[in-house]
Give the backbone structure.
Amino acid sequence: MRPQFEEPQNIRRRNRARLMALIFENPKIDRTQLASMIGVSNAAVSNISGELLEAGLIKEVEVVKNTINRGRKPVGLEINGHGGFVLGVNILATDVSIVLADICGCVIDQIDLNPRRIENPEKTLNEVKHAAEEILKKNKVPRHQLFGIGFGIAGFLDQSTGELKRAPYLGWPPFDLTARLNQLFECELVVENVTRSIALAENRFGVLSSFKDLILIRSGLGLGGAFISERQLLEGRENFAGDIGHIFAERGGGICSCGKMGCLNTIASGWAVMHMLGDARISYATINQFRRQNARLAELVSDHAKGSAPIVEALSRASQRLAMHILPICQAYDPEAICLTGPLGRNEAYAKTFKDELFKNGLKCQIITASETKIISPAMAAVYLALSNIVYSTRFDFDQVSRGEAEAKVAFK
């Protein structure tokens, strides 16, 4: 059997992606260190870094070291934020945000939208496209310097086909979402469930970066979750892994927004808190009901309501139920860390009860809550999704930079 040889251009693409990622993660790293970490020669690193320097994607910086040796000062490498840009698009039932960031992950601008008919995917996506064009035009970003777009969606996709399978909070039907986005934006893009995108962003760039195995829970009007094992997202057979809001929790319980009875959403979410307080008799069935109930929940968990004993009691009771139903999952999965985020994750009463209940029942892992630690926002998670899955990966189209520069020169002439 003949040995399989990898094409030289694929090897170079892989090494370039690894080099850029290491420079992003280790500012001021030098070429010798890069060669050692990638496993290539110093000459190979010099060739690749020379390409990237010429393209304006990285820059040389002086490294200050305690040395008395004379001669050329040590030089390290950093990502050049001005070398390219990404967009992060967050599409939730309650809001839509578009963030423009440079390839260092620094925010340049943000637009918040309130689509008139968010339950209509075609109208909403066209509004997003128009707003994206506006933010690029306003900030004078050349098309060849837009390297990718990350989308965080309140729904679940089949990652093998790109099709949207379920988006109950948005009210969107199943359709080939990725194909439609490709038609609209004509750009490298990546699409992921919003809760999963937050978990991935935190695991790669945030407070969860030191953990290989973790669970992230996003608690708002409904509940969502994401499971990461060995730094890989668990998707499940039908790609619904982590959808904890709809696991069975109480026999003969209330009717959930999904139509089933006794889901965890009905006893442990923001909707459950409202139900206990008499603010929500039935679960939301339409996008407008969802928005009204979500606005009311925001009032209940605001700073102005902190001193209300009934509200604190309802929040604590819902959180205790969440902890008790998550506990056996945690015991079976044995994660290094659990992160609680979302509007209720930022609420002190809800977050503290969740944490205390798990510790009280013997769970031995790191528990991180958004009430104590700043967690990456959904819009920024979409930015990091674009950076990690496009810019700092083998998907990055390096030739796009040179093609764009050549076109710009022709246009200038």
Remarks:
- Residues 408-413 have pLDDT under 50 and may be disordered.
- The chain has 13 helices and 14 strands.
- The two ends are 55 Å apart (CA to CA).
